[in-house]
User: Fold this.
Amino acid sequence: MQNVEIGVGQVKVNDGFWNRRIQNAVENVVPYQWRVLNDREPGAEPSHAMQNYRIAAGLAEGEFQGFQFQDSDLAKWIEAASYSLIYDDSPEIRAALREAIDVIGKAQQPDGYLDTHYIIKKPDRKWKEIAHGHELYCAGHLLEAAVAYRAVTGDDSLLRIMEKNVDLIRSVFGKGEGQIDSYPGHEEIELALMKAFRATGDRKYYELAEYFIENRGSRPAFLEEERFLELSGQNRWLEADYHQAHAKLRDQKTAEGHAVRAMYFYTGAADVALEKNDPTLKAALDTLWKNVTGRRMYVTGGVGSQGDGERFTIDYDLPNDTCYTETCAAIGLAMWALRMLRLDPDVRYADVMERALYNNVLSGISEDGEHYFYVNPLMLKPDVAKYRRDHESVEPERVKWFGCACCPPNVIRTLCGLGSYVYTQRGGDVWQHLYIGNEAVLHTPAGDASLSTVSSMPWKGRAQIVYHGPSGVTLHLRVPSYAKDFAIMRNGEPVSLELEQGYARVCPADGDCLEVSFGMDAQFVQANPRVTEDCGKACVCRGPLVYCAEEADNGTLLGDFTADLAEPPRVEERELFGGITGVTVSGTRSDMAGWDEDTLYRTAPAARVPASLRLIPYFLWNNRGLGEMLVWMNAR
Assistant:
């Protein structure tokens, strides 16, 4: 069966939970970020992104400012803004997009080169700092933006700019005489090239992606660069494994190094494996998937536990208060999961994709859409986070922008492009991975078909799916791992479930109404005892959501509470944040009457009293001001 690319415009999210967030992103956040990128938003750290392009284009004077990868912030915004037009065809956003693309085009050099850091600051260092220079990383994000802009608007002006840039890259990199035989220091261009290949059908994009994927880990490549040798010699966290360049992909057994780089690398590799129909590459990715999700992933779908190097460490090393779990890394995990679903539609990939999207990704942005977390801890004591050196990466509150602002536009492009995560397709077989309300038009061998989904997720396990189209189309409806008593009704009659890899198979007729229902109990979850930080602890999950306790509901000293695992968590509807499903947990806390502030230790056992803890979904934490937060509770 041939995999079918479902275009971003074919699926429009229309969902009770996600609509408010997408609408806010479209109406408020996309314009807000445009102001930030133009250094016009009071209180936000300057971006310099557009100004760098204007200087490179000769439209302004000045010096390059920001990180060497500052161009990528604008690229991700262009992608997000393009997707936003699906929901609101705003003349103002179209004009901003045209302005940005016009400046990018004027900044491009005659040979196709396009990177403002090197055009302005280091013109003699082009292609000489591949390990840490981010030229190919920025090119990848711009190429993704170009594909998105053309897909939504039909305008290929940015794609033409990037095609010229890719042609230059193809001439610079390769195994031919006079070429640089290497690969990107920061992966990203690989998955972007595969997007361009699927959008255009031009195999030059695929061939370059395959070269970068298959070449990674070869030597000397950038591993002999002066800058690489200097940094890797000074800092063990910046050695070859930081770049996933310590071995060829098929020889890598554990996820190593910078978590975002790893996720983007695996995503691009999965795309290449699908096009090559290469079972050995798929097997290598499965080995890495098992390591990431079975030994190195947080319950929230976060990956990358260490701030130094923004990286993976070792199996089961998952600290809660110092964990890095960068928002971009969780987005990368969701992207990788989607590609693995295209390779092999198995519920285990969809479960992780959903977990990441509803938790670690969504926690990266505030409810107002204008404040962001780069790092997403699972435990916070504000005074400790502000003081201790080992917490220096942890922001106690979301901020309006970052100097290194990769996460804010990444979250927005994910929200505005959320429809691309709902389905995958092979010929006349369609898999629905997420029960998110949407309107979809799918092109099948039997003819066009439409799916209309109305969903109560994530608060209730109910969805109604109406099918219109020809016979001969098969729907595969996901049975989530947490689902209890999963059932499907077709036009009011029960359907006998035929399950394959966690999906229920249904062959609908035109006009069929499929009602999916399942229970979602609030459950205590415990970690493998090998996770030292979570020994003797439990957290609460309900459906795709992880829950946490906040000081706003429970006061301080959250870490003193001990949950009684014999008492199931109680589910309750709460009016907070426009209406949520909350959870209350029973247990005990210390009797503080026996503890004055100057008594540091007492003979055990200390007296305890009955208590309860009120929990909210993790993604909502820190929307009510500064305070303590806790995911993993003591338990008995």
Observations:
- The chain is about 35% helix and 20% strand.
- Residues 423-519 form a domain with the Maltose phosphorylase, domain 3 fold (CATH 2.60.420).
- The longest strand covers residues 580-590.
- Residues 18-37 form the longest helix (20 residues).
